[in-house]
Write a structure and sequence with these properties.
The complex is a heterodimer of chains A (269) and B (306). Chain A is mainly alpha-helical and 269 residues long. Chain A has eleven helices and no strands. In chain A, helix 1 packs across helix 11, helix 3 packs across helix 6 and helix 3 packs across helix 10. The two termini of chain A are 45 Å apart. The mean pLDDT of chain A is 88. The N terminus of chain B is likely disordered. In chain B, a hairpin with a 5-residue loop joins strand 1 and strand 2. The longest helix of chain B is centred in the N-terminal third of the chain and has 33 residues. Chain B has a two-stranded antiparallel sheet. Chain B has one domain: MetI-like (MetI-like fold), CATH 1.10.3720. Chain B has 306 residues and is mainly alpha-helical. The chains are: A mainly alpha (269), B mainly alpha (306).
Amino acid sequence: MAMRRYDLRHYPSFKAVTLFCLFVLYAPLLVVTAYSFNASASITNWEGVSLRWYVEVFTGAESEKFKSAARNSFVIALIAATVSTGMATFAATALLRGGRFRLRMLSFGLISLPLMVPEIVTAVATLIFFNALGVERGLLTILLAHIAFCIPFAYLPISARMQGIEATYEQAAMDLYATRAKAFTRVLLPLMMPGILSGWLLAFIVSLDDFIITNFVKGAGVETLPTAIFGAVKQGIKPNIMAISTMLLGVSVVMVTLSWLISQRDTTK
Amino acid sequence: MAGGGQTSGASQSDSFAPVRYWLLLPSWLTLLVLVLAPVSMMALYSFLTKEFRGGVVWDFTLAAYDQFFFDRGLFGDEPPKLQWTYISIFWRSIWQAGLATLMSLLIGFPTAYFIATRPEKQRALWVFLITIPYWVNLLIRTVSMKFLLREQGPLNDFLLSTGLLSEPLAIVNTNFAVQLGLFYSYLPFMVLPIYAAVERYNFTLSEAAADLYATRWVILRRIILPSVKPGIIAGCILVFVPSLGSFLAPDLLGGAKNFMIGSLIEEQFKGNAGNWPFGAAASMILLTMVMLILMIFAHQQAKGGK
């Protein structure tokens, strides 16, 4: 029998499909980024490169609205990511370092619940809940809802990291008379840091990006960046919206890249 | 789905067993109060009577579900007929989500396979390139898609300038635009589980088949595809489920004629005109469908794992 002259694993058209896939994923984002630098007031014609619309975002007629929306978005994302990452770290410690116990499987289910329930259903349910309790809708209701749905996103990288850390480290510490709290803060936590950091970054982006749930639980007049953008887009896509979108897109890409670099570093260690 | 359920015995330690309930308490409380309680409350609301200015009256009734399925005439006194308005919105959603899933599979499978057969060092970078767009704001991605596809948009400009078309394509506000939007929203979800499955696939099986004179495409169809089926099913579910209840793609790309479940639900809670129990009932029906799909999937996975 003759030797095979080709690589069996290789399928001729698959590379083209992959490149097409990347093209489809990136083309819309690149086009909007490019047009955000368009000097023209129309979104159709190209009249050369300018930062006009970026200036407009910070100083134009709508700038106050967008600035306050951005402030709300970042404050909420900062608090929601921090609180949910803390909870997720504790939960991962209990579930991966707490032995076998009866509520363990149920806890996995509960933590993944926000990923399984469709977002629009969570949104409706949360609105109904706050309404039934007579809680006035505003920044606080947005924050509470965000903390809840950020937990699984923070949990995933944290638990992945913890699974890779041998329990012998904290056991050694406790054998040498470290208290359980010390073993946690001085041994487990530093080892977990890359996972915690990447969990925090993902939770931050997820909170920053959320539209549907925020749209339901925000009060009248309270806006985050996505709800403000959605409101503006309903009147038509304008160049200043593309400038804001490009900036927000940049923030997401930078944070995901950071999260990725952090997780890459610990696999090469 | 949160993983860790199948933790191997090696990493199963109990150094923190005495405090495990205290460690779990914050997330349990948060999720019980902010997810489980609201969903239960919503289930309850779906059986209440609507208040005309939004909100509910505490009278138990099946009216919301009845309105979903049956038409009893303008005054509610005629014999019930099946009411197609809402059922057809659900049917369209299933259809749209299904087509978006199919498109994702056709593009996602070759991509995942290609990435999984790269040299090991390059794979992480490829996977990263596929996932970046997912982390970009869904709203911004959908708006970008609309910007690209619209009648005077860059896509049409390009097609017109090449002379392929003489008239711009009207893509926005069609079913196809919604499918494209959904496909674009969730494509990475298709690639990742298939990639994981192909990466575990043992290529000596392909060698063996080739030695027995199977062609490449026969190997793909008869050996690789069945081996990575769990990854394909997982990918399909991860695309289908969020597509089914999506709001942004149908709202921004579909226009008023291409209504999906998400928009139907949203409308019930907007302003004072909505019908809260009806919105809650529609949400319950959507939630039930999704949970059924996930349960069948979990059951299949459990069976396949043995």
